[in-house]
Amino acid sequence: MTPVLDVQDLTVYYGKRRALEGVSLTVGRGEIVTLLGANGAGKSTTLRAVSGLVRPERGRIVYEGRDITQAPADAIVAAGVGHVPEGREIFPEFTVLENLLVGGHTVRRSQVGERVDAAFELFPVLGRRQSQLAGTLSGGEQQMLAIGRALMPRPRLLLLDEPSLGLAPLLSREIFRVIQRINDSGVAVLLVEQNARRALALAARGYVLETGRLVVAGPSAALAADPRVRTAYLGLDRARGGAAG
Amino acid sequence: MTTAALVHVVVSGLATGSIYALMAISLVIIYNATRTLNFAQGEILMVSTFVGWTAMQVLRAPLVVVLIVAVAAAAGLGWALERLVIRHAISATHFDVLIITLGLSLMLRSAAGLVWTHDEFPFPSLFGNRPLAIGPVRLAPVSLGIIGASLALMLALYALFRWTRMGRAMRAVAQNQRAARLMGISVERVYSGSWVLAAVVGAVAGVLIAPVVFLSSKMGLVAINGFTAAVLGGFGSMPGAVVGGMLLGVLENLAPLYLPSSIKHSVPFLVMITILLVRPSGLLGRVARRKV
Questions:
Q1: Roughly what angle, to the nearest 10 degrees, separates helices B267-278 and B238-258?
Q2: pLDDT higher than 70, residue B125
Q3: What is the CATH number of the domain that holds B106?
Q4: C-beta atoms of B186 and A90 within 8 A
Q5: Is A60 within the bounds of a domain?
Q6: Where residue B290 falls among pLDDT bands split at 50, 70, 90?
Q7: What's the gap in Å between the CA of B35 and the closest CA on chain A?
Q8: Which residue in chain B has the smallest CA separation from A86?
Q9: Residue A24: exposed, middle, or buried by beta-carbon count in 10 A (0-12, 13-18, 19+)?
Q10: Is residue A23 part of a domain?
Q11: Across chain B, where does the E strand assignment appear?
């Protein structure tokens, strides 16, 4: 079966600085795949290249069999790729409802209402705060809004960039539960996450990026057992790995 | 001075102020979408008013047709300037684009001079000229017409920004361009739309003000007062543009009553400098933009 997302040999430069070099990865239908790596390793850049925010120097990005490497960002959204960016980037001067409505920019008018209801069903707190300015929401609520907004066009691939960043443990657990629920409804997820342990628990497979290159790839269990991953991203070393596992 | 005379002065001040407000709004529309100032705004107004007037001369068409032709010409001109000139400078700095629009304004003014000469032409008013008497107060229909038409247009713009998909997209782009792209909004289309909308607002202002100031290649200079009004109200704020415009118009009309009449044209700048000294972000501007 063809993967939902097939990235081949992706190379991205920011000016003269190379951000990604020859990155290849796939996300299967209905699969959760995680992308791990230190700050500045190129995780966000990978997501931005997929959603058309940055143009790759080289490589090919194929979504559902269609080459989207050069497609404009708005066409990629319309094709079914949702992107929840790092830092949420909700519209602070819009109300919660307006944020969702603008998320439904590409949705047929007659369907916008039911999509808003679906978002409120997934995140009841957003329904209670629908006429509140989004800039006044708490971090966790803003994250929920960012996810709800990205789901408005019913994407078949969701790119999530650090969804639990800066959230209290309880809230981040809630966010991960929602990601699982979204995935259960058939949406493939490419997850960038600093909480590697939780990401690997959720994802079927993972990739590890180091300074713009893929260094390890494999099923989550294998990655969790890989000594390089354990030391660098799970905060474990071999000496006390067994106890903390 | 009698109350009746004062009311008359204030009402004509509000009429001038409405035009300033419309000009301020059109500058803010483009600024919010693209973060650049359009110095050619006044010249777009002037050219589209001339085109409407020419249509009337040639076709002997009724005055309403002037408005329609002027609006259509403005939409076309705004679209063409953005698409053919500004779009190519999309990755240039805001300062570069500002200089480009300054160049466009000079070119449009010279071109208008070649086509229509630099003379002044009388322009018929959409509204009659028999003064309206309310008690002792006598009001010029031109003033009331300008105020009424401007308010109607402002309400229409409010509805557009608040309730339509395009309006919401424009406001989203103003807040965060990258996030707007991730919503599936074509930022390029918002740029085009902003130029067209701003030009159309300018054209309506042009047709409204031409009977008062005469039609000439210099009438685009009203954009300077529009700019002042926008800064007064807090650049980027639509309600601020309206308040700034109205305030400016009224003060400009009142000042000669109490001060030497030659001061009239310095009033906008005196007011602007005073207010900015007290409130650097303008009347309704935010002191600092929120960051999320």
A1: 120
A2: yes
A3: 1.10.3470
A4: no
A5: yes
A6: very low
A7: 17
A8: B179
A9: middle
A10: yes
A11: 132-134, 137-139
B236 to chain A nearest CA, in Å? 13
Q: Does B186 touch chain A (CB under 8 A)?
A: yes
Band of residue B259 on the pLDDT scale cut at 50, 70, 90: confident
Radius of gyration of chain B (CA): 19
Instruction: Check if the interface score ipTM surpasses 0.90.
Output: yes
Q: What angle do CA A143, A144, A147 make, to 5 degrees?
A: 90
Residue B287 in this model has a pLDDT that exceeds 70: no
Cβ-nearest to A72 among B180, B186, B290: B186
Q: Radius of gyration of chain A from Cα atoms? A: 18
Interatomic CA distance for residues B276 and B265, integer angstroms: 18
Q: What's the structural domain count of chain A?
A: 1
- A45 in a structural domain: yes
Residue B284 maps to a domain: no
Q: Which residue of B has its CA nearest to A134?
A: B292
Cβ-based contacts of A98 with chain B (< 8 Å):
168
Residue B173: closest C-alpha in chain A: A91
In the β-sheet with A205-210, what is the strand arrangement from edge to edge?
Answer: A81-84, A157-161, A188-192, A32-37, A205-210, A213-219
Range of the structural domain that residue A167 is part of: 5-89+156-234
Q: Do A89 and B169 touch (CB under 8 A)?
A: no
Q: B178–A153: do the CB atoms touch at under 8 Å? A: no
B206 part of a folded domain: yes
User: What's the domain count of chain B?
Assistant: 1
For B94, the domain range is 3-278
Q: How far is A143 from chain B (nearest CA, A)?
A: 12
A:B CB pairs within 8 Å: 70
Using CB atoms, pick whichever of B169, B175, B178 lies closest to residue A93: B175
Query: CA–CA separation, A102 vs B167, rounded Å?
Result: 10
In this predicted model, what pLDDT tens digit does every residue of A213-243 receive, in sequence order?
999 999 999 999 988 888 777 766 544 444 3
CATH number of the domain to which A76 belongs:
3.40.50.300
**B288: in domain:** no
Domain-embedded: residue A17: yes
CB-nearest to B185 from A74, A94, A109 is A74
Give the one of A77, A83, A135 whose C-beta lies nearest to B292's C-beta.
A135
